[in-house]
Amino acid sequence: MTSAQQGRRVLITGASGNAGSAIARLAREAGFDVRLADVAPPNDHDLGDGEFVRCDTRTPADVDRAVRGCDAVVHLAAWHCAHEPPVSDETIFAVNVDGTFNVVQACRAHGVSSVVFASSMAYGWGGVYGVTKVVGEDLWRMHHETTGASVALLRYHDFVPKPYLAWGAMLLRNGVDRRDVASATVAALHGVMEHKVDVFRSIVHTDHGMPASVAGHFADQGRAWCDEQVPGSAELLDRYGIELPTQVEQHDLTEADRVLGWRPRYGIVDFLADLRRRDARGEDVTSLWAPGQTPE
Ligand SMILES: NC(=O)c1ccc[n+]([C@@H]2O[C@H](COP(=O)([O-])OP(=O)(O)OC[C@H]3O[C@@H](n4cnc5c(N)ncnc54)[C@H](O)[C@@H]3O)[C@@H](O)[C@H]2O)c1
Fold first, then answer.
1. ∠ CA(172), CA(175), CA(180), 5° rounding?
2. What's the whole-model pTM score?
3. CB of residue 78 inside a 6 A radius of ligand 1
4. Does residue 286 register a pLDDT over 70?
5. 144 vs 138: CA distance, rounded Å
6. How many A from CA of 20 to the centre of ligand 1?
7. pLDDT at position 1
8. Which of 46, 50, 112, 206 could bridge across to 107 with cysteines, CB 3.0–4.6 Å?
9. Is CATH 3.40.50.720 the right assignment for the domain spanning 3-162+177-204?
10. Ligand 1: which residue has its CA nearest to atom 15?
11. What residue owns the CA closest to ligand 1's atom 21?
């Protein structure tokens, strides 16, 4: 436990969601005093004894009550495009834009000067959702410009809950492990609490540690590279029908490492090593879900 964080109260909005529950857990482990806010309490039993505030971010009075008394806010509450049944564009806009505006207003009213905002790799494209993240980032930039608050804007890649094998395949595409989402967010929380940044933006993505020559020609070189990292994995990729992309997208994440001390830990090599272990034990991996995740 980091004693420096003891007694520092952090509000997490959308705390009952997929990212929220993992972030809340990690923030608690780091010593933060976590207040959870959501329209419904968390299902996770281990979070059940934490402070929970029922809050619809579209309702300013709810938000005001949730933010009051907090030193920092991690604003996650939003609807995205991967929910079943789908959420309407109207609701996505209202929660993601009006809701974020209300959280900004409450932060200004209560002098909250440390904020982490869940943005997305969908920033600016693909419809209403992507636009709501543009507006969200701008609202938080305004909060910095008008109050001097320290703000981190994290553009997460895809961590929507998936079956284990689909999750492994997704890591080679636009996916990121939820554990890396949580560690990036808590690293950013430390960064904004210490006012290390004015407005800091980072992509939150996987790093496979793969040479650019392999990433750029993955269809030709990927199987051999995987097999070199985890012997036997070429055969596993075939047997479990894991399709390889033609190229693997990799981002330069060195700034997040330099500024926040964060780097992703879970890539395709970890997945393949885990798959090999499970396969050797004769486990039925087709019925598993990604680590720590369950169907929505
Ligand atoms: N899941 C992804 O792949 C992904 C990728 C990029 C960015 N993001 C962003 O990360 C954040 C968390 O995503 P997630 O996948 O954990 O989502 P999630 O749907 O699992 O959780 C979102 C939470 O927000 C809550 N919520 C919805 N409307 C609310 C309201 N009006 N007031 C209060 N709470 C409300 C929901 O009850 C839910 O618990 C979101 O901002 C999302 O846009 C997610």
1. 115
2. 0.96
3. yes
4. yes
5. 10
6. 8
7. 47
8. 112
9. yes
10. 18
11. 17
* Nearest-CA residue for atom 7 of ligand 1: 120
- Reported as a single tens digit per residue, the pLDDT across 218-270 is 999 999 999 999 999 999 999 999 999 999 998 999 999 999 999 999 999 99
Q: Is the CB of 113 under 6 A from ligand 1?
A: no
76 is written with which tokens?
Answer: 């996650």
Q: What letter represents residue 28's amino acid?
A: R
Domain locations in the chain? 3-162+177-204
Q: How many angstroms is it from 13 CA to the middle of ligand 1?
A: 9
Question: What is the model's pLDDT at position 291?
Answer: 84
